[in-house]
Design brief:
Length: 257
C-alpha cells in the first residue's frame, strides 16, 4: 500500500509561474534530473520543471511536508504508460490522484485523495479560435453554444472553456487527444459567487464526468472527475491567476546548447 495523504478533503489546487522556478535543481530526484538532461528545447524544459515544481508543492501541502529542496527531492512525479502523472514519496507510491497542466508560463496541479478515481485538469488562455477549429472538434450543440455568444472575448472564452473541459475529461479517460473530441459533449453552468461554475462532460458510450470551471483574467481552468465533488480549494493564493500574464520566455532562447 502506498502512503496516504493526511488531508482527506476533496479537490485542492495550486498555481505557480515560471518566476518561482529555483535557479538550482537540487529539488529534483536523480531520475527527474536525468529526464531533464535529455530535453534540448527550452520550452519543453521549462514546462517539465514547472509541472514538477507545482506538483511537488501541492503534494507537500496536502501531506504536511516541508518545501525545502531536500524535502522536495523526496517527492517524484512519474508518468504511467498512458502518460498520466502519479507521485512517489521516498520511492513509495502516494495514494493521491494528481493532474498537472501548464499554459503560458503558468502551471496548475489539482490533487484528490480518492486514489483509483482519476482527476483531470486543464489550463487554457482566452484567445481567438478559428471557426474551423470549432467545427472540427466540437459537437453540434457545442458549436451552437459558441455561436450564441457575442463575437470577441465572450465567444473566445466559450470556445476555450469547452476545449479545456474536453481536455480535462480526456485526462480522466487516460486517452488524451488520441480520442475524437466530438465523442465528448460539454455542458456548462454559470459561475457562482466563489468564481467556480459547474460543468459536466458526457461521453457517447455513457459515462458522465462532473467538474468545475473558473476564469481568472486571461486564464481558464477546468477540473473533471468520475466522482462529483465540491469545487477545488486553493492551496495558495486563489487570485494568483487573475493577475497573471502569459509568458513565453523560451522564445528568447529556444534551444539549449
Amino acid at each position: 500500500m502506498g502512503e496516504r495523504p493526511s488531508d482527506q478533503g476533496g479537490y485542492r489546487w495550486l498555481a505557480m509561474g515560471e518566476d518561482a522556478l529555483p535557479a538550482a535543481q537540487h529539488w529534483l530526484t536523480p531520475g527527474e534530473a536525468t529526464r531533464l538532461a535529455g530535453l534540448r528545447f527550452t520550452k519543453r524544459r521549462n514546462e517539465y520543471l514547472l509541472r514538477r515544481l507545482v506538483a511537488k508543492h501541492a503534494v507537500a501541502a496536502v501531506t504536511g511536508r516541508p518545501t525545502d529542496p531536500a524535502a522536495l527531492a523526496g517527492i517524484e512525479v512519474r508518468n504511467a504508460a498512458s502518460g498520466a502523472p502519479y507521485v512517489c514519496v521516498n520511492g513509495a507510491p502516494l495514494a493521491v490522484e494528481v493532474s498537472i497542466t501548464d499554459r503560458g508560463g503558468w502551471a496548475v496541479c489539482v490533487t484528490h485523495p480518492a486514489s483509483g478515481h482519476p482527476v483531470g485538469c486543464d489550463l487554457e488562455l482566452v484567445e481567438p479560435r478559428r471557426p474551423g477549429f470549432v467545427g472540427d472538434f466540437f459537437t453540434a450543440a457545442e458549436q451552437r453554444l459558441v455561436a450564441s455568444r457575442p463575437a470577441g472575448d465572450e465567444r473566445d472564452a466559450a470556445a476555450n472553456l469547452i476545449w479545456s473541459a474536453k481536455e480535462s475529461a480526456l485526462k480522466v479517460l487516460r486517452t488524451g487527444l488520441r480520442r475524437d473530441t466530438r465523442t465528448l459533449e460539454v455542458t456548462l453552468a454559470a459561475s457562482r459567487a466563489d468564481g467556480w461554475g459547474p460543468l459536466t462532460v458526457r461521453a457517447v458510450e455513457g459515462p458522465t464526468f462532473a467538474g468545475w470551471w473558473r476564469r481568472d483574467g486571461r486564464f481558464l481552468l477546468t477540473v473533471a472527475s468520475e466522482m462529483a465533488a465540491p469545487p477545488p480549494v486553493a492551496l495558495g493564493d486563489p487570485a494568483v491567476l487573475a493577475a497573471a500574464e502569459p509568458r513565453h520566455s523560451w522564445l528568447d532562447r529556444p534551444l539549449q546548447l
